[in-house]
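Async update (no meeting this week)

Hi team, since we skipped the sync, here's where things stand on the single-chain job. The sequence we agreed to prioritize is pasted below, unchanged from the tracker. I ran it this morning and attached the output directly underneath so nobody has to dig for it. Comments welcome in thread, and please keep replies under the output.
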Amino acid sequence: MSNRTFWSVAAVLGIVILVLANPRTPEETVVHAPDPAEEVAAAAADPPAEQVPAEPASEAEPSADPADWTAPRTPWGDPDLQGVWTNATLTPIERPAGLGDQAVLTAEEAAELEVRTAESRAASDRFIPGNVGAYNQFWMDSGKNVTEDRRTSLITDPPDGRIPWTEAGRERLESDLARYGVGPFNTYEDADTGERCLTDGLPLVPLQGYNMNYHVLQSPGWVAILNEMFHEYRMIPVDGRGQLDPDIGAMLGDSRGRWEGDTLVVETTNFSDKRHFLWRATWRGARPGLHLVERFTRIDDETIDYEFTMTDPDMFTQPWTASVPMTTNQESRGVTSGPLFEYACHEGNYGLLNIMRGARVEELE
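Output:
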């Protein structure tokens, strides 16, 4: 269940983001919510014995005739991107291997996928004796439909819809996957950055089962983006200033924005070197070689066309791009509607202590 309500603005050069609280439980610090991409891959690989009758894949109604629509402006004349946006979707970041070169689902395939995913989620809500489990579907707030264009991946380039790993990058991916949720848990750094309530990194992608919401605020010369997950926010100057000194790094890098027509282009460099951390999504890990370019274009009253390109010669054989549509119409994505409340997950939470204690008890058995 997504935590909602975002409440005030005021500080650095006109913007300060204040938020209220909803503490994270110990179970959640130990186990991440299901990855929507894994749900989709499983559903695609395991069709039902009988075809399930279903309504066509849901599509949001356009808010206006595109020919008559004009991008809104702030009082100082910048394109207005403000609002609470969600990018929740069943469409995975990478195309499932079983779909081969298929770039788009038919309407029937999309509808069947949505039905199978809903059935799979319902079936997962069962008690298993001896297993403490984690959150059930009552607490989840995943998207319930694919993107309007029914793409099989959010990645648009390369054409195969897959992350173009270098050999070294793939080795790191496989190493992280082998450790994830398994351990050993000898220190707090053996838990991934999400379990530690730090961050899951950039860019803005729907990889978790809830909290896929972002509150965008603007003031002259600034854009602020509050990410519901980890209550983290980005302060992005759009006043023409240069990047920070290369020796100054940050987990979310150093972002600088500029306007290209109605599009906000955000270039982020200066990621700190956190390659020794475990990241849930290896490709999002903070590292000095990462260069991220994001593009935000409001295309109607309810939609932002969000696109990002990642470059890192150590990890990827080429730059790659994904398109992740965002909407203020939360209901159209099948998620909870309303404003944001704080998701109060904090570093050093007692869940980490319990992970270490549990590992020590296992060693004595």
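Quick observations from my side:
Residues 1-31, 47-63 have pLDDT under 50 and may be disordered.
The longest helix spans residues 107-124.
Reply here if anything looks off.
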